[in-house]
Amino acid sequence: MIEEGYAAVSSRRIASKAGLPNAIHYYFETMDDLFIELFRRGATRSLARQEEVLSSRQPLWAFWDLLLDRSNGNLNMEFIALANHRKAIRSEIAESSRTFRRGQLKALADVIETSRSSTPFGSPEAIVLLLSAVSRFLTTEDAFGLDIGHSEVTGFVEQCITEIEGERLRAAEA
Q1: Contact predicate 79/92, CB 8 Å
Q2: Which of 123, 131, 124 is nearest to 156 (CA)?
């Protein structure tokens, strides 16, 4: 999927790469079932990682760093493209996203509430959505080799995070 895109994925190609001819349909009735299981496995790992960073001493900084982690960016883009054509995948991504968002809001509401910022960052929903949108946009543009304005936007976001949560702690302190 990462190498050639979701459209190149077929049960024959997977079976061939795995060295298990005709075994794919034994385990997965449809390709949607296979894609959903692949997505769920990744989502489970990502959710565990999110829970870890959101329970850190500086959850907002850790969340921002997590959002900027591009290690799954290409695979996520393929799943989003696939979801445009497959309703079952779209539903799975939507439900998973709701689970992620609820966890983000729960963890970051306390950060916003206890912030000593003079700027009114009163809505954890707005902050989560803003950070998520900016990071996705940066990731998308980065995939096309476009980075004009990225450092300025990143600097602005990090200035806002500093205003809310304070200076970023060094790794040993976090």
Answers
A1: no
A2: 131
Count of residues in the chain? 174
pLDDT in tens, 95-116: 999 999 999 999 998 888 877 7
Per-residue pLDDT for 145 more than 70?
Answer: yes
| Cα 30 from Cα 20, distance rounded (Å) | 17
Contact 60, 124 (CB under 8 A): no
CB 142 within 8 A of CB 26: no
C-alpha 96/C-alpha 39 separation (Å) is 9
Distance CA 18, CA 9 (A): 13
Q: What's the N-to-C CA distance of the chain in angstroms?
A: 36
Q: Which two tokens stand for residue 60?
A: 């907002």
Residue by residue, DSSP assigns 117-149 as -SS----HHHHHHHHHHHHHHHHHHHHTT--TT
What is the pTM for the complete model shown? Answer: 0.84
